[in-house]
């Protein structure tokens, strides 16, 4: 997306990525449907996440302050998150959204260091090392794992967890891709791959290794983490933190970081939908940003009020279904990007032929 927007001067929309294959037809009905699919996936994917996130925060506040873990509390939380996201969105990418993202990363790092230091550190290191090894050695095998020979056992687990989250993340691909492209002007493709693909993957290894490793070790030591997951997924993080020192403080930080994550997700998703619905305008009107932020919060609130978690799960399944056509689009996009790069005279001339020109572009 960033390449076609900044190298080829095309609109900052998903349809632009298919220009090498479709030419000017991306401006017709095919391009419209690509962007519409991106808008739908972003809206409903975020609404589902916002509803489930409100449930998680509600559980945390119930354990910390005795607030009722009810639909009413969750609706209030959605309203607060939406209001904060709208305020952040109005202030722009360089102020509100950036500061929220930085705050969430700082609090997450503090929480990560706390669990690593005061949790079962040795077991965490063992799980981290072994987990990375299993991931690297079984990458291809697990990529094709669907539990075909055990449909009610392993197959059900794969559907409920692996496939579900793969689909959910893919439905977020247009939103995340558009937003990262919006803030990445001036970077080289090499810097982009390092900063967007490799570094976050390494951080994810550490995050899952520390939090997941601590949960496994504490559960084996007697903490009822597995039971809490079975009863309510949202309680797991708080049950784990309850087994560590200063659990009230760490649980409060966990609830706050969930709120900030969803505020930053809501404002950036609204920004992306604004760009898509305004033809790729990188600075859409403020009133339009406010409309989409409120629409996302209202969608999550209405769904939660109408049927609670069951409706959100049904919507979640729908989001996964939306991910299927996106899988195909992503494959086609890979070929389109390769074709676009091969036809770019600056890339075709070699890595050093236009180094001065690229340096000047990056400074601009």
Structure description:
The protein has helices at about 1-5, 20, 30-65, 70-90, 95-120, 120-135, 140-145, 155-170, 175-180, 190-220, 225-230, 235-240, 245-275, 285-340, 345-350, 355-364. With about 375 residues, it is mainly α.
Please outline the helices and strands.
Layout lengths: L1 H5 L12 H4 L6 H37 L5 H21 L1 H26 L2 H17 L1 H5 L10 H18 L1 H10 L6 H32 L4 H7 L4 H7 L4 H31 L8 H57 L2 H4 L6 H9 L1
Helix pairs in contact: 3-4, 3-13, 3-14, 4-5, 4-13, 4-14, 5-13, 6-10, 8-14, 9-13, 11-12, 12-13, 13-14
Helix-strand topology string: HHHHHHHHHHHHHHHH
- How far apart are the first and last residues' alpha carbons, in Å? 19 Å
The total of beta strands comes to 0
Helix content: over 70%
Mean pLDDT across the residues is 82
Task: Write down the overall geometry.
Answer: globular
Total helices: the number is: 16
Computed over alpha carbons, the radius of gyration is 22 Å
Structural class: mainly alpha
Poorly predicted tracts of residues: none
Q: How is the quaternary structure best described? A: single chain
Main pleated sheet: none
Strand content: under 5%
Key features of this structure:
364 residues, mainly alpha, 16 helices, globular
Quick synopsis:
The chain has 364 residues and is mainly α.
